[in-house]
Amino acid sequence: MTDEQLLRYSRHILLNEVGTDGQERFLAAHALVIGAGGLGSPVALYLGSAGVGRITLVDHDTVDETNLQRQIAHNLARVGQPKAESIRTAIAEINPDVTVTPVVARADAALLDELVPQADVVLDCCDNFTTRQAVNAACVKHKKPLVSGAAIRFDGQIAVYDPRDDTSPCYACVFPPTDEFEETRCATMGVFAPLVGIIGSMQAAEALKLLAPAGDPLAGRLLMLDGRAMEFNEMRVPRHPGCPVCGGGATHRG
Question: What residues pair up with 235 in beta bridges, in sequence order?
């Protein structure tokens, strides 16, 4: 690290759990962030400020004024710009040393199959069930740790799914792709602005813990937040032996 980097990241370096070695791992790491909205904003800003060397942001949408209530990486001057490019600008204003690659596209299976193998950690910050399943399948296929977050109304949840660990469940173990799922969107149901900040910040924390490595990740645990009462509840989630994605019947395993 340069003298400037030693100064910039000094508060991390002072942590026994991170230190110089952990910070150097951050600088060498590549994070893939799916979604550049309410969750993706704090995720990307914290990963960038922490010095994660490469960040790839995938989002097909553009910034709208209605986003600004909660999507803190965007501003009025960038309304109409692709969200992924807007966040690249926001990170550059905090830490110009980070290489941010915006991908203005939907995260379909083909794109994920290209991007996931290049990443050290994947963060699911999207807002729909189909994309979540596609991200999970790609992470299982390429054995990349996944930090998954969700937030709607006053309710949030976060979990880590790590296919490098044979005991860790995947997203599909907890939310089977064959289940009928009614999508709820903030455009119709609403979302409490700070909630996405809380969950997104926790996602960034879990990703950095995986990269350091430091502490105990949320693998095998689903943490749920009731923002009305500001109460957390934790559910232990085992790997499902019959899971069509990570179980014995998975057809895409290499």
Answer: 222
